User: Fold these one by one.
Assistant:
Number 1:
Amino acid sequence: MSEYRLIHRTALSDKQPVDAAGISLTALPEGHVIHVLAEQSADMSATLEGAAAQTHSVRYVAPGQWFIVGDEPLADDAMAALLTRLTPHAAGVDQSHGRVRILARGPMVECVLAKGSGADLALSAFAVGRSTTTLIGHIAAHLTRVEDNAFEIMVLRGFAESLWDDLMRMSAEFAE
Amino acid sequence: MASLVSCPHCGSRPKEEFTVKGAALKRPAPDAGQERWMDYVYLRDNPRGAYDEYWHHTSGCRRWLVVTRDTATHEIAASRDAALDVPETRA
Amino acid sequence: MTSYRLQKGGLIDRQSPLGFRFDGKALSGFSGDSLASALLANGQRLVARSFKYHRPRGIQTAGSAEPNALMTIGTGGRTEPNTRATMQELYQGLEAQSQNRWPSLNVDIGALNSLLSPFLGAGFYYKTFMWPGALWEKLYEPFIRKAAGLGKASYEADPDVYEKCWAHCDLLVIGAGPAGLGAALTAGRSGARVILVDEHALAGGSLLAETGSIGGATAAEFARQAIAELESLPNVELLTRTTAFGWYDGNVFGAVQRVQKHVAEPKANVPVERLWRIAAKRALLATGTEERPLVFGGNDIPGVMMAGAARSYLNRYGVAFGKRAAVFTTNDSGYALARDLEAADVELAVIVDSRADTAFVWSGKARLIKGAFVSDAKGGKSLSGITIWKDGKTETLAVDALAVSGGFSPIIHLACHRGGRPVWSDTHSAFLAPEQLNGLSLAGAVNATSGIAACMAEGAARASALLGELGFKVEPATFGAVEGDIAAPSAKAVWSIPGIKGKAFVDFQNDVHRKDLGLAVQEGYGHVELAKRYTTNGMATDQGKLSNVNAIGLLAEARGVSPAEVGTTTFRPFYTPVSFGALTGAYHGDHFQPVRKSPLHDWAAKNGAKFVETGLWYRSSWFSRDGETSWRESVDREVRNVRLNAGLCDVSMLGKIEIVGADAGEFLNRVYSNGFAKLPVGKARYGLMLREDGIVYDDGTTSRIEEKRYFMTTTTAYAAGVMNHLEFCSQALWPNLDVRLSSVTDQWAQMAIAGPKSRTILQAIVDDDISNEAIPFLAAQEVSLFGGQLRGRLFRISFSGELAYELAVPAGYGENVADALMEAGKRHGICAYGVEALSVLRIEKGHVTHNELNGTVVPADLGFGKMVSAAKPDFIGKAMVNREGLIAEDRPQLVGVVPLDPAQAFRTGSHILAKDAAATLENDQGYVTSSCYSPHIGSTIGLALVKRGSTRHGEDVMIWNGLRNEYTPGRLCSPVFFDPANEKLYV
């Protein structure tokens, strides 16, 4: 069935973006997400800096773990090359379809997220570039502050629609 | 209503992000004998006061922690990574 | 008409009149009024009937402790009973209804209870309704339920939205009175993150009712300027209309903000109430005090009011609480009201001061009687006079309003919420907060400090000190001179008042009077916790804010001990009632719990799936087709079709974990009971996971994808638990193994393709050779799909017993691939099948699920004895799995069961009895763990855990369902009903 045309069905394809002065919500492209798992106390800084210097962004997850993310899907050979670059002290697990990224941006973004998360996300406590995983309401999500007023929210694909609906409700008062 | 657990990696977080497993006991050697194993699997001290417990930051960094918690007041004196034994940095 | 609006004064906007209704009567107030002040301004003194005796009641306070003025606000789904009129802001069109009266507030039949009051004392219910017991359910309980309670909740759904949120700060200041403002200004200027909460609409606390001045400005103007400064500071958040109701672990405070409870029509997208959880590094309690009532006869008659409240209505709202007033006080605060009443030209008939030796110099016009008590108040629905007792002689005086001050109780509730006990102070005649509170300090009147200047200075000093602990350097704020403040230093409390004739109330809301407490002591319930329950003192919605300390004082006197010895009952959250709406937040209806959607959800839906909730997942139960009238019809068809042709089932919900690292193989060897060390690359193996106690925990297959990369599947139900468990093993038990885990459940859309034609169908989309030689049973390979367009993982594993595969593809392509398989399989008769058919297929094959892995079985019980490795030095469960009881001969073992008559059925959960045994617990042999109708066998079949089951194949038994009284003669058999030689698996 080589004539069959494959269609990538995105998790949030049914959702309309929110674009208001106080807050905007956008489903980011389902490009690539690679879960990097390093050996204990391996120094990955050079490898990760190398990845960040290219088209990728690097997000801290936990000790010895990062996500390498980007908006463009990686072709098989590019993925293989990236995974090889992580060796021998780390392995990568492809999560490009397992995680969905949402961008929440606007002056009210901290207020919106405070309705779900008990993490202190004030700029003074959580600077641009910081990442953490936290519960947003009942759903665990990985947050990265990408700008003073913008967070990338990464969530398990199966929960993406539910989290989107929750974020919509949390944003409602600022999205009139 | 609310209470916080400190995670050495993530800072203070609501307890809803965590799963508690119970007493942080050292697993006996496989050949330690039935008595030691019965103690490990079934017997607990249940003290009033400081107690070392395993807590998992399930909805956070997913690390297992050893949390020293007062069973009467819930005051948390220390929390460290179960594997790395990282000293706690309290916020 | 005894209370009335003054011509001038008050912090109300006389240019903004607001119309409202009370019991249907149209009334008018001003913007800035509370419902209570507006009612008083309209001369409406009778506002409620009491709980038990239906006595006429009026407004007693100006704040959240109000025991009497509870009313139902709003209409329809917005109906809110038991709202305190003193806390409800007035808005245009507000509808208020009085409660607990019939047919009307003025003429209330229930008031007959008052005549019966000699029989309705404390313990009445306990004593009266004891006997006969049979009447309890039919008569007494319905009667009591009907009589009990105040307002009624609406049956309509609340149309408004609520939410919860978190906040973080360096310093939380609770209360925006003199001490709170002093603290907040100090902290705000330091740059620290500050949150200031106050339960009223207007911050300022007692300053709003003051006539004195600070630095030349009126107290209210000072408060206004302080608030303006705080609002200008970006590091300060001021939350008014916000009640801090509890102090919790980790220095988290619960607070509820009434965002839109003061507006006629709430905005739809904005919550009406918001529940805050405030994580504070330090907190300062500046909650002030509660003025105590005095316990004299008729102290509940409308027109009797707390002195501080009367002053608040006078100065803040421009309302006089009567035309001819009296003041009865035990301390200096009564004189502040007296002075202000005279300044406002309200006639003040008398000041009764309980202290014979008072040093206060009264220079006003009103007569002052020292060393005297008001022993009784007279009147029905409104106060008409008082009796003054002095040295055994009495005098009556006609007045229509009486202000009372029995001293002050610091509002220490929050300080006691984490187990600390209040400490009685003889010096202050009050219970004070426990000392050494971790993270919480007190300042101002709540700390028994008196006077505006002292409170402000203490607030500023405490804030400076607390922030100093956090590394902020800030000098305490200083303020201009305070003038005209009548501070009220602590005075000796007065519990028993001489000469009382009438009913003297202690707890107004629960109608507990002085004699009830005496009775409690007399009958042996003098302990404070017992007296509370015996009399119900302090158990109403106000939780005894006005009554508890008086009750303790009276109990102490009756027992001849100090209040310190009586002690207090336990302070618990919530400080004031919190609505269920706020506690629920947005988590109801569609947001009650998240939905977890399979990447094949939409594929299933368009193929006619009927979904069932499995945890948070929605799984396809079965796929109904046109003409099918019952679920069984659909399921039977799906089962037959899988055995005959092929079927496709969504198994994306299985837990999937990628395991990498040099020691991944060793790790698997330790977490599974069977051996995994020698699993070759490209192969899958069934694994059994035990708990440390030897009981089976979970099962699944694990495949070796690469040398140091494995792919584990778990059951759907235990997916999260297994991941947590593996993380525990790798991090806490064996941190020195190099093993790293990533949950890939959501990465892959996984489908089972089962049935004799599955290979043919699969080959249509798989580029690689998938013949039996290339992909034999238990092969696990990465494959290329659609001419190299996609890579997937193909596993030759079977849950159904048929030739079968599981194909995993990246989730975003799942629907597309499933569509392609259905298309390719159309001419081979493929069907979609759901978990019901999946279950039938696996029962026919004798495969276990968590029905059988029920937390009591060990591998040998399931016939998996060989899966417990004897060779491995260690694995989870090894030490305990061979304990005495777990290897006993008569343990329940997995067995099949069929009815003797194929036309008869039985149910899961039915018990197994020996053939002729009586249906008793002693004769119970085990139970049916799974059952279904098997199209293959042509009858109901079951799996059961039965004593010594593996040795009893062929034995006739009785299948007994005691709940439904069903008896089905049956026969035990092999649990494998289908293809016992596994011929189909290897074709």
Number 2:
Amino acid sequence: MPLKIRKRDDPWKWGALVVFLGALLFSLAISGLLLAGQGKDALEGLYVLWQGSFGNLWALEGALLKAIPLFLCSLGVAIAFRMQIWNIGAEGQFALGAIGATWMALLFPDLPGIILLPLMFVMAFLFGGFWAFIPAFLKLKLRVNEIISTLMLNYIAILLLDFLVFGVWKDPASFGFPMTPEFTSGAVIPHIGESRVHWGILFCTVVGIGLWAFMRYTRLGFELQASGQGSRVAKYAKIRYGMLVMLVMTLSGGFAGWAGCVETSAVLNRLQPSLMVGYGYTAIVVAWLARLEPLNIAFASFLLAALRVGVENLQLELQIPASFGVIMEGMILLTVLAGQFFLTYKLERKHRS
Amino acid sequence: MKKLFKLFTVLAASMVLMLSLFACGEAPQEEKSEEPAKVEEAVASKEEAKIVKAGFVYVSPVGDAGYSYAHDLGRKSVDALDFATTAFVESVPEGADSERVIRNMARKGFDVIFTTSFGYMDPTMKVAKEFPDTKFMHCSGFKKSTNVTNYFGRIYQSRYLTGMVAGAMTKSNKLGYVAAFPIPEVIRGINAFTVGARQVNPDAEVRVVWTKTWYDPALEKDAAKSLLDAGCDIIAQHQDSPAPQEAAQEAGAYSIGYNSDMSSFAPKAHLTSAIWNWGPMYAKIVGQVRDGSWQGDQAVWWSMQDGVVDIAPMGPMVPEDVKIIVESAKADLMKGNDICFVGPIKDQDGNIKIAEGEKATDAQLHDMMWFVEGVVGTVK
């Protein structure tokens, strides 16, 4: 049957959901085949994956915890991307946020949490925001491509973090290992009740809704979206494009900085190099997967985190290599992104003429 | 209308989030009610078979011929015991992710869990607190508690011996050392290597380049090349990739491997390797867990005598007389006579750090953040 590709005239209602589920099914089926190829029971494998991702409270807890930094970074990346500013530097801004928060935690160890934590968040936002402001400034004044400058600043940020934990901030009681002293209780975001999930999740919800409302209901938010059409459009509409670029980048970096603050404070309770596991880069994938929508980002980061947690379970239960998990993640992302083709185009039977 | 709908979805989503939070908050209570049954079950099944479940957490893939590979060889010798089963998770990043993996293992009823990288220390301590009946063995850290024992091997003893080989084989008297991170573990190795080399060749000096990586073949190869360009004719390394070995072979120089016998990667260059041999001690630990003699709250540092560290067979290019010297030093170590850091030992500035006739204490070794005389480089 001959088919042809045609652009959709109207958006496909529920299309996003159909495409997403279809892509998920497709990649799970291939994963099953891969499992079978390794001599494992494919159905059992998928069940173990499900169990490890969503089948248990502890799995959900683990996924939620991992989704928090991913969500904040991704939110930051997404607002920059919406304006077609390509901020690849969430990783470095994340590191700077962690550094800012740690600085406060080490400087005022005796303050109660109610003062110290807000101080850490403010400093994390300023540090992360500043790190993103640099490429914005360079872009506007010297026309430096922000893709390159944000990426390069990542390396500098990580080296700066290393410099601090290997040097001036090193815990004297750590036998020379690179880490700061453990934070005092005032600098640690508390857990919610008896669970392992911390209050950072509420912070995420507030930030997410706040950003959505800002984009939707404020004039500035509207200008941001309009500027996404390009600087010429923006100038035509008498929008202060340069100011917006700097604002958006600062916000973007600030969000990543918050992620660094939350992760350092609530999860590691100290600054150490193992903080950097690539959230800033994964965030870019999440942002695209979610088509830059805040609510979708929440779901996408949770899904990706859950997948990661589930794959660990799969590794443990079935003793498959770690790279299998990476392959599976990659496949799901690729199919979902490729599937978005069907949102703009559709296949039609060719009419004989 | 559309706006309203969107607002509604957002509200619904946040409700779902909050609900799931409450659900999580209630979680421990539910678990508690199940606990007695679980414990009984566990006890019953243990008495039936007395099978010990041992879990291993690795920081890198097991196929890397390096650090995790060596630990996994140890795991395999545990797996060969008729009273033990094992499982492992590889490529687990240090920090938050490792905590989840370790907790998952503890929850699944593993009796003893080996966490084999330094960065797993805090996560191991946290999980150990939640699972007081599970036994934890943490490698290369310094914290311990009633159910956590930390362990490591005196790989510096192997370094000392490989240093002797290098010192005897060098013509330029310049030895290159591609080093990972300026932490005591690595610095100790460089120092032992240098002392060993100068034992047989007082003119030998060791040039150090930091890569700040544990596994980055391209970078580590470049570092080795820069040392070769600076006139070094032997390359030693403290990373998991065999890339420095390859660089040495390509330049027609010699090399000293680490972690496992790296001769297959550079047969023409490879003199020997400082190697880990975890099998015997891992089997012993699991045996102790089984018969109840395992002890927590210990800090054990196994030596060559215990069979945990060794050197790989020396290559055909090493002359007999060198082999004899090295073997006799090894015989000393095998007797428990730690000859690596015997005073007088000076630091780079010529200050006496270990006085004549004294030996370095374990505290001095643990905290070693200075280079011995003969090292060219800084600890930063």
